[in-house]
Specification:
Elements (H helix, E strand, L loop, with lengths): L1 H22 L2 E7 L2 E3 L2 E4 L4 E5 L9 E3 L5 E3 L16 E2 L7 E6 L9 E6 L5 H5 L5 H14 L1
Parallel strand pairs: 1-4, 3-9
Antiparallel strand pairs: 1-2, 4-7, 5-6, 8-9
């Protein structure tokens, strides 16, 4: 009987783990000329994002500042990414809640970027407080509008 309870507990635990993985969604973003469609997506923690039609494009969370320093606009404790040029790309499950900003390096001058909001936008106020300009400001405004 002792082993039966342990086996039952193990099976229940495994089914909970597998069911949460099965319930996770993959959200698809399409690269279209110089825009990501949709530009803003809201997902649940544990979901993934895939970029398709990436010929000549990159999905990158690293932004270069005027002084050549680098900044990532992602939640604290999260891991950013840089896809390979021209290759479709998919993230690992995004588990840290907050706002993730990304861009296409070759087309950032045309404003090609996007926003992923995972769960609650925990870091959006901090990002807005940096007083972004240009295309980055537009991404922040789109994120703010999406969470209202």
């Amino acid at each position: 009987m002792k082993y039966g309870k342990s086996l039952t507990s193990a099976l229940i635990g495994a089914s909970v783990l597998f069911s949460s993985a099965v319930m996770a969604e993959n959200h698809v973003v399409q690269a279209q000329v110089t825009a990501f469609k949709p530009m803003v997506i809201q997902i649940a923690p544990g979901d993934t994002v895939s970029w398709e039609n990436m010929n000549g494009h990159i999905s990158n969370t690293v932004f270069t500042n005027k002084d050549q320093s680098k900044t990532e606009y992602i939640p604290e404790g999260a891991t950013g990414w840089t896809s390979a040029m021209g290759e479709n790309y998919g993230t690992e499950p995004l588990t840290v809640e907050g706002v993730y900003l990304y861009k296409c390096d070759p087309h950032w001058g045309a404003g090609m970027g996007g926003v992923i909001i995972v769960g609650e936008p925990t870091n959006l106020e901090a990002i807005a407080a940096t007083k972004p300009k240009g295309a980055l400001k537009r991404l922040v405004k789109k994120a703010q509008k999406a969470v209202k």
